[in-house]
Amino acid sequence: MGRFNIDDILRQLSEPDPKAPKENVPERTTEAAQASAQVASSVSAGVPVSTSVSTPSTVATVSATAPAAAPLHVVATTSAPTSTPASPPAGASTSASAATQPMPWPVQATPTVSPASSLLAATGQSSSQVDSQRVSRPGSGFDAAMKDPSMQDLSMHDLAMSDLYVPEDDLDTPAATLESLLAERGIATAEQLLGAARLQKQAPGRKLVEILKEQGVDEHAAQSVVAELARMPFERIDAKAPNAFDRALVGQLSAEYCRANHVLPLRREGGRVVIATASPEDVFVLDEVKRKLSLQAVRHVLATAGDITGALQHANEAAERSKADDFDLDSILSGVGDEDDVEIEKEDVNERDIEAEAESSPVVKYVNHIIQLALKEGASDIHIEPDEKVLKVRFRIDGILFEMLTPPRKMHAALTSRIKIMSNLDIAERRLPQDGRIRATVLGRKLDLRVSTVPTPKGEKTVMRILDSRSINVSLDDLGFSEDALTIWKKQIDQPHGIILVTGPTGSGKTTTLYSSIRQMDTRRMNISTVEDPIEYNLQGITQIQTHEKIGMTFAKALKALLRQDPDVVMLGEIRDLETASTAIQAALTGHLVLSTLHTNDAPSSITRMINIGVEPFLVGAALNAVLAQRLVRKICPKCVEDRPIDPDIADFLVTHGITGPTIRAGRGCGACRQTGYAGRLGLYELLMLDDFLRDKIAANPNVVEFRRLCVERGMTTLREDGFAKVRSGKTTVEEVLSVTEATI
After folding, report:
1. Which of 736, 710, 709 is nearest to 722 (CA)?
2. Which residue has the higher pLDDT, 11 or 696?
3. Secondary structure (DSSP) of 65-87
4. Is 454 helix (H, G, I), strand (E, B) or coil?
5. How far apart are CA 157 and CA 146, in angstroms?
């Protein structure tokens, strides 16, 4: 197809047909009458006017062959002067009526003016002014032109041509890109964008948002910019909402298909279905979804891949829980006979899906049921304890043991053997303690269970620690730190070197605090390594080393090896002996940040513990930056919380700790909290910051009582003080604080 020339088209449209016959119309037009009125007014005012017929005029040429009912084809022409104008004698007056009488005006064939020029001449505007009005004028087109007084004298053809498109001058402005918008809005830094572009070149199939998410960029903010550039709506999906997506449509597509293609039917809107995808370019996926669901029309919205996967995962877990609720325990127990009826074979499988084995034997089903129930109840440990005539299964929930199941006593040996098989332990050895590990998929979630068996006179006792990665995926903001303590702690973990200790008894949350602190660091720019015994949770982007005492792989030896690996941050599971403590101090003094734990009751006691291990006091003061002591207390259940009057017996005691009101918050007890009044736990923290004054005191090897008093005088908040601050804010109770803390001063 050739290119059109707009000037040629306008010229052809404006030229009259030369073959059409012409006839003159003697009668004056409205324009001529207006010109006569102007002449008359000039004459009456004494202004000289021409007496000849050479006054410029506008006439109309009408086609003689046009039908009477057809509209006239009007062509605007202009006549030129033909004679010299003559002035009337002085004092002569001409009446307005005489001036307005019909006068024969000549009709002359003159050159035709183009519509565009006629338009500009009639309005008295330049072409640039017309172009600017096309952009800025609120109304344009034929209707607007008819209302404009400056255009009422134009022909129909000229008015039609006035609405032609004129290109704007700023069309060559470059469009905004995803990278420029992300940098302009502060969502990603220039360094992150450069690194993501480099990685995207090495893996062309990966999306930029996916790479930026791995670098710590907010996925939702980045995806919203993608949706804005694609001119698509962006939606966030709440996985826990009851109507987060249409489960019936997902069932037709299958969860596996939705997970693989990152597509999710959200809801119906009239005759359309709202489909969320993770990419605006998923046109073929949408066509396939329409074909699978027999849909005529869909509404395409954009969501993050994390939201889509999370919603599907949450729905899968809910379905597994519902299936577990229908578990018929009586039918399983009815199929259990004597111990000799249960045949167990050795298996060499490290990781297995518990649900895949649900149809095997009653003992296997019962063990699966125990683990599933523990995960549903939020238990941290499972205790299987034999007695003379009974067998008890207890769960530790929020630090308290609850008796949950009482299987038949004759199932004890079979249950223990089944757990040993799953953890690859020796089922024939019942006289020695054994430790193992189970990797399983329970309720749609992959988790690890650390298994320990101990022989007792009544049989082997088995304890399983549930290691769920979700329990450590907690930010520092959610651990229970006060605002001041959180700010100081974050500054400490950003220090380039030194030792930071976390102290407390077993089960006080030390590992969770250290893991949350490590996740605050930039793992992309730092080399972070850990030495643990055992490795409880697998962390992405971090080097984790398991110690083996039997082969000589101790904490000290592993730490010495790590120092040759160019580390920035090193986490030690525990400082137990002089060799480990000395190596950690040397690492801190040579420019490394060392995180570790100690088993002491409070923060000041850790200083004397390090000295008692054998470390020189001046080295302790020089290397140590901060010590954090912590405890865990149960939180008041939010579903049954109420105000209770304060007991008069403890009123005076509470006043000394700043609680002066007539009531105090407590949990009444409900089904959600197993009638305990508590749900979940939070930490109490005692943060000791070492300044020059305290370092000098440490060098003098003070006793723990005197050093604790100095720390309090320097502004340290004790565990009990932090606990009563949380009581005042209604987060926990006085009983919980008193059960885990003691009056140290």
Report:
1. 736
2. 696
3. TS-SSSPP---B--PPP-S---P
4. strand
5. 12
Classify burial at 718, counting beta carbons within 10 Å of its beta carbon; exposed 0-12, middle 13-18, buried 19 or more: buried
Query: Can you give the pLDDT at residue 153?
Result: 55
C-beta of residue 597 within 8 angstroms of C-beta of residue 510 = yes
Please tell me the distance from the alpha carbon of residue 461 to that of residue 11, in angstroms, as a whole number.
103
DSSP single-letter state for residue 60: B
In the chain, the N- to C-terminal Cα span, in Å, equals: 95
Q: Name the 3-class secondary structure at 532.
A: strand
| Cβ-based neighbour number of residue 657 at 10 Å | 16
Q: Indicate the DSSP class of residue 637.
A: P
Contact 531, 557 (CB under 8 A): no
Q: What is the DSSP string of 167-232?
A: --TTTTSPPP-HHHHHHHTTSS-HHHHHHHHHHHHHSTTS-HHHHHHHTT--HHHHHHHHHHHTT-
Name the one residue in this structure whose structure tokens are 């001058």. 169
Least confident of 340-349, 500-509, 546-555, 670-679: 340-349
Residue 676 half-sphere exposure toward CB, CA atoms < 13 A: 20
Q: What is the DSSP letter of 114?
A: P
- Please give the residue that has the higher pLDDT: either 20 or 658: 658
Residue 325 binned pLDDT confidence (cut-offs 50, 70, 90): low
Give the separation between CA 177 and CA 187, rounded to whole angstroms: 14
* Cβ pair 336, 411 in contact under 8 A: yes
Cα torsion through 23, 28, 31, 35, rounded to 10: 130
673 alpha-carbon distance from chain centroid: 30
Question: pTM value?
Answer: 0.65
Q: Tokens standing for 636?
A: 């008041």
Q: What is the mean pLDDT of the chain?
A: 78
Amino acid identity, position 516: S
pLDDT in tens, 181-234: 999 889 988 888 898 888 888 887 788 888 888 888 889 999 999 999 989 999
pLDDT reading at 57 higher than 70? no
**Parallel, antiparallel, or unpaired for β 624-636 and 498-503?**
parallel
How many CA atoms, within 13 angstroms, populate the side-chain half-sphere of residue 112? 17
Nearest-CA neighbor of 573 among 564, 586, 584, 565?
584
Strand ranges (E), 533-677: 543-546, 569-572, 593-598, 624-636, 641-645, 663-667
Say which residue, 565 or 538, is predicted with more confidence. 565
**Cα 644 from chain centre:** 40
The three-state secondary structure class of 740 is helix
The tens digit of pLDDT for each residue in 680-728 reads 999 999 999 999 999 999 998 888 999 999 999 999 999 999 999 999 9
Long-range contacts for 116-121 (Cβ within 8 Å, ≥24 apart)? 116/10, 116/161, 118/76, 118/154, 118/155, 118/158, 119/151, 119/154, 119/158, 119/161, 119/162
Structure tokens at 196: 């993501």
